[in-house]
Write a structure and sequence with these properties.
The chain has helices spanning 40-43, 49-56, 66-72, 84-90, 111-123, 137-149, 159-164, 166-174, 188-196, 204-217, 230-235, 237-249, 265-279, 296-299, 342-349, 360-374, 380-399, 417-424, 435-442, and strands spanning 4-5, 15-17, 61-63, 80-82, 95-100, 128-133, 152-158, 178-182, 221-223, 256-260, 285-291, 301-306, 315-320, 354-358, 404-409. With 451 residues, it is an alpha/beta fold. α13 (265-279) links the parallel β10 and β11. Bound molecules: pyridoxal-5'-phosphate (PLP).
């Protein structure tokens, strides 16, 4: 009975896997405000050339630079666990495995791409990065990566999370980053929101606008995004590659792969390497789990929309709830995003990726059961994957099917204890599906969407 399946450092992947090579249809291009595809040069205003190349690449395998592998070796390979105790508590015939991304210094999968992005920016002569963060996991990760590669980092942190998770801010400051509660008065995008909504709790869409605006307006500063974009999803594929090898070591292969989905990089990271097998005919189900109060894949429209609230980003074809949709202040801040990765969206649209929406209380119930059986206190975002996995395991109990389930534990919840406190004191609620707000926001989709 093996609980943890471990790889040594020589097994840190040498290449990232690019799912575009195996997708049945090429991805829809990013469009400018004129409705024409955005030329790669336009992205060079805020991204280094190597990342722009990766964003557009259709190469199946992209080599990981050695300094990035060396930085990854600080915590990778991450363990794969067999959740025997959770299986027992559920009385399920299913075998449950989870990949443990909570072991990174920032506590989630996010540093996997942060170190790559910091490296390529430094190589391109950039010394300063601006970014947004929802729950604080991405901001912490970029703060760490900036420190490792010698870049200054400024983080616009969604206001509701800034107050819910004050120690995330301290963590970013410890690694040397500057942190502001977004919306701020520092940018035009922030000032515009504050003028109309002085009490705005912020959103990832607003924080992205602020960080992009700053990078676009300063020569010394580039922008770094923690999710959504193709190159970010690409960098996360080391998670699924390792997991595949680890499952192989114990003679297993998953029937179902599950991950929570905010902007989609966490899901891509574990699921895309398995998608390669699915594209080759293997029967494997890939499930993205999202909050029912921000149900992008399950209730959004598949259309062109902006990636941010102010409309500064290119238009991306994706599932969206509308770029000015303000998700309820749920405690899984990293999942409060109106859109989704174009790659995940397209695969979902083509029926190759499934999605489930889960109410907040069910996610915390799952997280607490997980903590009490498997010992690790999960991040509220990761609780969505755990809840989806528990639903699947319970279905196996009903049908008697001994399926093999794999989920990504995207992060720990050590800085999210105020959310757990509120759950224990009965203060957390299940938000109604915000139908009216979503309909309202979808009415403001950019014109090209209708074309
Ligand atoms: C712990 C954790 N899991 C998952 C996510 C969602 O990640 P993604 O945007 O890659 O879907 C986040 C985002 O902040 C996170 O912090």
């Amino acid at each position: 009975m093996q609980t943890k399946i471990l790889l040594d450092e020589s097994h840190i992947p040498t290449h990232w896997y690019n799912v575009i090579a195996d997708m049945p249809n090429p991805p829809s291009p990013y469009l400018g405000p004129d409705g024409k595809p955005v030329p790669p040069q336009a992205m060079l205003a805020i991204f280094p050339e190597e990342l722009v190349k990766q964003e557009m690449s259709a190469e199946r395998w992209i080599p990981i630079p050695e300094p990035v592998r060396e930085a990854l070796a600080l915590w990778r390979p991450s363990p794969l666990h067999r959740a025997y105790r959770l299986e027992k508590a559920l009385g399920t015939p299913a075998k449950i495995f989870f990949k443990n991304e909570s072991v990174s210094p920032a506590g989630s999968h996010k540093p996997n791409t942060a170190v790559a992005q910091a490296y390529y920016n430094k190589q391109a002569g950039i010394n300063r990065l601006s970014t947004e963060t929802g729950a604080g996991q991405w901001g912490s990760s970029l703060a760490l990566a900036g420190r490792l590669f010698g870049l200054d980092v400024r983080v616009y942190m969604v206001k509701v999370s800034y107050h819910q998770k004050p120690y995330r801010r301290s963590m970013m400051q410890t690694w040397g980053a500057e942190v502001f509660a977004s919306p701020t008065n520092l940018t035009e995008s922030g000032r515009r929101i504050l003028a109309s909504h002085p009490d705005s709790p912020g959103s990832l869409g607003i924080a992205i606008s602020e960080a992009v605006e700053e990078a676009a307006g300063r020569k010394d500063t580039n922008y770094a995004l923690g999710s959504v974009l193709n190159h970010v999803c690409l960098h996360q594929t080391i998670v699924g590659q390792e997991a595949k090898k680890q499952m192989e070591m114990v003679g297993e292969y998953p029937d179902v792969v599950i991950a929570c989905c905010g902007g989609g990089s966490n899901f891509s990271g574990i699921a895309f390497p398995f998608f390669a097998d699915k594209a080759a005919g293997k029967d494997v189900t890939l499930v993205a789990a999202e909050p029912s109060s921000c149900p992008t894949l399950t209730k959004g429209l598949y259309t062109y929309d902006f990636g941010d609230t102010a409309g500064l980003t290119p238009l991306m074809k994706m599932y969206t709830l509308g770029h000015d949709f303000m998700p309820p202040g749920i405690h899984a801040g990293g999942l409060r995003y109106h859109g989704d990765s174009a790659l995940v969206s397209q695969l979902h649209h083509e029926g190759l990726v499934d999605a489930v929406a889960i109410p907040q209380l069910e996610t915390f119930e799952a997280g607490v059961l997980f903590a009490r059986t498997e010992a690790i206190i999960p991040a509220p975002e990761s609780c969505h994957a755990i809840a989806a996995c528990i639903r699947e395991a319970r279905r196996c109990t009903e049908t008697g099917e001994p399926k093999t389930l794999l989920f990504n534990l995207s992060g720990h919840g050590h800085f999210d204890m105020s959310s757990y406190d509120r759950y224990f004191s009965g203060e957390l609620e299940d938000y109604e599906y915000p139908a009216e707000a979503i309909a309202d926001s979808l009415a403001h989709l950019p014109k090209v969407a209708a074309a």
